[in-house]
Amino acid sequence: MSMYEFDWSSIPGAIPLLAKGMLTTLEITCTAIVVGIVWGTVLAILRLGNSRLLATLAAGYVNLFRSVPLVMVILWFYLIIPQAIKSVFGEGLGDIRLTSALTAFALFEAAYYSEIIRAGIQSVPKGQVAAGQALGFTNAQTMRLIVLPQAFSNMMPLLLTQAIILFQDTSLVYVIGLSDFFGTASR
Fold first, then answer.
1. Residue 107 and residue 61 in contact, taking contact as beta carbons nearer than 8 Å
2. Which of 35, 37, 68, 122 is found 20 to 30 A from 45 (Cα to Cα)?
């Protein structure tokens, strides 16, 4: 018999709070993954495109978000953006903490997903693009039908790794007083 035994009696009463925290964590994680991959794909394509202006703007976005700590981005979107929206539109946004967290995580993760997706696109052999053009596909069709499916297959391990990191990073919402799964569990 060990000297210390864990008291399991507090667990059943905490399950509703833990479930609520888990829902918040999953909502932030899933939103950031979906928006991050979609917006990250757009940014990656812009960075690889022919327009120097768009490539520069996309690179600036990616470099800005990747050079700033996530906790700072969360605070920006909690303290600055809602005030700017309120001054322009004159009304609130509902639960400002959750809205700020969703926006901050989605836009932050898009920068990281953009780099993963850009590397995935560049991993597809140039011959695949030439084959699409030889078949008469437009550049957009070649990207959508030939390059992106192969690129996403190549980058799946990195996308999953980034999703796991994102799940862990959701605990940073404590800085704006939002209670996620990890924050709820530590109480």
1. no
2. 68
Sorting pLDDT into bands at 50, 70 and 90, what band is 186? low
Report percent pLDDT > 90 for the chain.
64
DSSP code, position 147: I
CA 112: distance to chain centroid?
A: 8
CB 31 within 8 A of CB 102: yes
Q: Is residue 183 helix, strand or coil? A: helix
Angle at which helix 11-48 crosses helix 148-169, to 10 degrees, equals: 140
Q: How much helix, strand and coil, in percent to the nearest 5, is found in the chain?
A: 85, 0, 15
Average pLDDT across the chain, whole number:
88
Helix axis angle for 70-79 and 81-89, nearest 10°, is 20
Give pTM, 2 decimals.
Answer: 0.83
SS3 string, 88-102, reads HHCCCCCCHHHHHHH
Instruction: Output DSSP code: residue 77.
Output: H
Q: Retrieve residue 124's tokens.
A: 């597809």
Strands (E), 64-187: none
State the pLDDT at residue 28.
Answer: 93
Residues 185 and 183: their CA atoms lie apart, in Å, by 5
